[in-house]
Write a structure and sequence with these properties.
This protein has about 300 residues and is an all-alpha fold. It folds into 2 domains: about 1-135; about 190-295, Serine Threonine Protein Phosphatase 5, Tetratricopeptide repeat. Helix content is about 75%, strand content about 0%. The chain is built from 14 helices and no strands. The protein has helices spanning about 1-25, 30-45, 60-65, 70-85, 85-95, 115-120, 125-155, 160-170, 175-190, 195-215, 220-240, 245-255, 260-270, 275-305. Helix 6 runs antiparallel to helix 7 and helix 8 crosses helix 10. The longest helix has 28 residues, at about 125-155. The relative contact order is 0.05. InterPro entries: ARM-type_fold (IPR016024), eIF5-mimic_regulator (IPR051245), HEAT_5MP1_2 (IPR057397), W2_5MP1/2 (IPR043510), W2_domain (IPR003307). It comes from Gorilla gorilla gorilla (Western lowland gorilla). It is found in: Cytoplasm. This is eIF5-mimic protein 1.
Length: about 300
Amino acid sequence: MHIVKHKSICLHIIQISLFLSLLLFLKAFSETEQTKLAMLSGILLGNGTLPATILTSLFTDSLVKEGIAASFAVKLFKAWMAEKDANSVTSSLRKANLDKRLLELFPVNRQSVDHFAKYFTDAGLKELSDFLRVQQSLGTRKELQKELQERLSQECPIKEVVLYVKEEMKRNDLPETAVIGLLWTCIMNAVEWNKKEELVAEQALKHLKQYAPLLAVFSSQGQSELILLQKVQEYCYDNIHFMKAFQKIVVLFYKADVLSEEAILKWYKEAHVAKGKSVFLDQMKKFVEWLQNAEEESESEGEEN
C-alpha cells in the first residue's frame, strides 16, 4: 500500500513538472495547441490535479513580451471557471500567493489595473477583473495605513497629513469612505491608552480634539460620517474602557464639525451596528432628543419668518 501511494506521489510530481515545462515552452506550440493546453490546464486546476503554482511559468519574460502569457491565461481561467467557479479560482490564487502577481501577465508598460480589467473583462472574465481591483485596493489601503501610522507617531502637522492622504486618494482612486475608517484606526493606535476607565475618557477627548480637523476633512459625505460613527461604536465596544466614552466622543465630533446632526440621527435610528447597540443608544438618547428638539425649533422659526 505504501509503495502504491509512493508511486502515486511520484507520478503527480512528474505530471506537475511536465506541465511546468510545457508552459515554459509555449512559444513552440501553435495557437491551436496553446488553446488546447490552456483548456486542459484549466480543467486540471479545477479538479485539483494541478496546483495553482504552475501559473508562475507564465511570468517568463519571453511569454509576457509576446502576449502569449495573457492570452493563454485567459483561456486557462475560462476553463477553470467552467470546471469550478470564480470563488474557487480566486481562493486558489490567494493560497498560491499569486493574487498580487496577476499584472505580471502583461509587459511592464501595461501593468496597470485598468489595462488588466479591460483585457479580462473583454474576454468575459469580469470576475477576475473585479477580484484584482479589490486585491489592489486592499494592498493600497494597507500601505496607506502603515504610512499614516508612521506620520501620526512622528506627530506630523495635520496639514501635511491631509495633503498626503489627498494625494494618495487621487493617485489610487480611493474614495473618502475608504479612508475615514483608516484614519480613525491610525489615530486611535497612535496612543497608549490609560487602563483606568475614569481617566481614559479624558485622555481620548484630548487626543481626538487634536485630530478632529483631520477627520473633518475626510468626513464631508454622509456615508463617510456613518462609517466613522460605526467605527467609533465598534472601537468603544471592543475596548471596554471606552464603553462610557462613546457619547462624549460623538458630541466632541459634533461640536468640531466632524459629524453632522443628520448623520447622528440616521445612525441612531437605523445605521448603528449590533455591537453594544443597547448601551450606546441609551447613552445617546438625551443628546438625540436635544438634536431633534433643536431641529423642530429651527423649523418652526423658519415657518414664522
